[in-house]
Amino acid sequence: MKIGIADYGMYAWDGGHFDFEARALALKHIGYDGIERLTAFHPEEAIRKSAFLRRNGLSFATVRGPSVELSVQWASGLGRDYVWTEVTEKSDFDVFCRQVNIMAEHAERWGIRVALHNHMGTLVETQEQLESFLERCPSAGLVFDTAHLAAMGGDAERIAALYADRLLAIHVKDWLLTDPDAGVWHKRGRFCGLGKGNIGMNNLDILNAATAAGYEGWIFVEHDTHLREPLEDLAESRDYLRKGGY
User: Fold this and answer.
1) pLDDT digits (tens, 9 = 90+) for 177-211
2) Which terminus of the chain faces fewer neighbouring Cβ atoms within 10 Å, N or C?
3) What confidence score (pLDDT) does residue 127 get?
4) pLDDT at residue 181, rounded to an integer
């Protein structure tokens, strides 16, 4: 099992641009095995970044290219197992599921799978929606975000236990609820480091449920919102996982 980071929060802190190689080596120094998505705009960039990670004992789980087709092809060519779902429909659940199934068929021809990232404010944010998606898109896997589901009142431990065979990656983070009456999800609170939330979720229990059911894939720490240098937050969350046996 590898422990990496989903790097959205680092991009947000840095303003969208940072030194990929310097950040990767710094993450290795604090105990991480790699990153989730290798972002590249040209095949040469994808190969260079992949080679740099391998040379330094790091890895990655998938690729995000300039188009869906290239993401699939580059992920397959670089020996990865999945790409994120990326379809045009954002409002109709039926159409969304149909498009994901089409994308899944395309990815299967390249020997990889597609994986949904459950997320507040999307068509798949609640427990019911997530389980419905998994039923209606049987070929799709899940980049399972524990806090996005828990913040919506879902049972993340149940998902981890019952759908371990559908999990292609797990995002772990916590949720700090600050204004439960706010209408927009991102104004109700913010994501925070492991063990620092206030909604009673326990990421270690969720991970234990997944591993007990056979999950052996990547675990990605994701801090969407950093209030200080990201490496400080990420080091604390790595220690939290290490003390929990990961």
Assistant:
1) 999 988 899 899 999 999 999 999 999 999 999 99
2) N
3) 96
4) 87
Q: Which long-range contacts (CB under 8 A, 24 or more apart) does 75-81 make?
A: 75/110, 75/112, 76/110, 76/111, 76/112, 78/38, 78/46, 78/47, 78/50, 80/112, 81/112, 81/113, 81/168
The C-alpha atoms of residue 143 and residue 241 are separated, in whole angstroms, by 19
3-state SS of 128-180 is HHHHHHHHHCCCCEEEEEHHHHHCCCCCHHHHHHHCHHHEEEEEECEEEECCC
Model pTM score: 0.96
Question: Distance between CA 220 and CA 145 in Å, rounded?
Answer: 9
Q: Do 141 and 114 contact (CB within 8 A), yes or no?
A: yes
Model pLDDT for residues 32-45, shown as the tens digit of each residue: 999 999 999 999 99
Specify the DSSP element, H or E, that contains 219.
strand 219-221
Distance separating alpha carbons of residues 116 and 220, to the nearest angstrom = 15
Residue ranges of domains in the chain: 3-243
CATH number, domain 3-243, options 3.40.50.970, 3.40.50.12370, 3.20.20.150, 3.40.50.720 = 3.20.20.150
171, 145 Cβ separation under 8 angstroms: yes
What's the rounded Cα separation, in Å, for the pair 31 and 239?
A: 9
Low-confidence ranges of the chain (pLDDT < 70): none
